[in-house]
Amino acid sequence: MCDAAAFYRCRCIFTDNIFIKDYNLHVRFTSERQFRAEYQKVLRSLGCTTDAQLDAVFEGMRAEVHRRRSLSVDSAERTAAIREQYKPLHSHVYKLQEADLAPEFLQAVKYCLNSYATKEGLLKLIETEAAPRVYRFPVFTKEFCRDLTEELEHFEQSGAPRGKPNTMNNYGILLDELGFDEGLISHLRELYLSPITSLLYPDCGGKQLDSHKAFVVKYAMHEDLDLTYHYDNAEVTLNVSLGKDFIDGNLYFGDMRQVPLSEAECVEVEHHVSQGVLHRGQQMHGALPISAGVRWNLIVWMRSSQERNKMCPMCSKKPTLVESRGFADGFTASGQGQNASCILE
Ligand SMILES: O=C(O)CCC(=O)C(=O)O
Ligand SMILES: [Fe+2]
Question: InterPro entries given for it (predicted)?
Answer without folding.
Answer: Oxoglu/Fe-dep_dioxygenase_dom, Pro_4_hyd_alph
